[in-house]
Amino acid sequence: MGVTSPTLLLICIHLAAVHGALSEGVCLQDGKHKTTPSPEPHLSECGMYADNSCCTEEDIQDIAYVPSDSNKNEPWDKCGPLSLECEGFLKRVSCFYRCSPDASRWPHPHRRSYIQAVPLCHSFCRDW
């Protein structure tokens, strides 16, 4: 029983579609992220994830300014005022965790809302 060319073509198209869907990433499944990544064209602070995001603009409103006791977020400046470079670094890290469909590649084994052992590029650390 041989496989005909049209059948083989349909199998290839199906596999390509499945692979394409899987390559778009997956959101962390912790109730704080969207269930699946999708475009969010109006992300202000995390614009690099606008094409395929696990967050909404509402989810990241607090990233627009440095968290503090007055806005009920964990303050970033516990040790004194932050430089603009340091604040930018912290925002990029927060955007990755909240919006990146790639963050789920490094799940914590016991805490669904955590990630661990995320590899960093040397340039990311150097530039900070």
Which of globular, elongated, flat, extended, rod-shaped describes the shape? globular
How would you sum up the major sheet?
none
* Subunit organisation of the chains: single chain
Radius of gyration: 19 Å
Number of strands: 0
What is the helix fraction of residues, given as a range?
A: 25-40%
Strand content: under 5%
Order of helices and strands: HHH
- Helix-strand category: mainly alpha
Average pLDDT over all residues: 78
Key descriptive features of the protein:
128 residues, mainly alpha, 31% helix, globular, signal
Q: What report would you give on this structure?
A:
With 128 residues, the protein is mostly helical. It has three helices and no strands. It is globular, with a radius of gyration of 19 Å. Helix content is 31%, strand content 0%.
Structure summary:
The chain has 128 residues and is mainly α. It has 3 helices and no strands.
Task: Reconstruct the topology from this structure.
Layout: H1 5-22, H2 84-99, H3 122-127
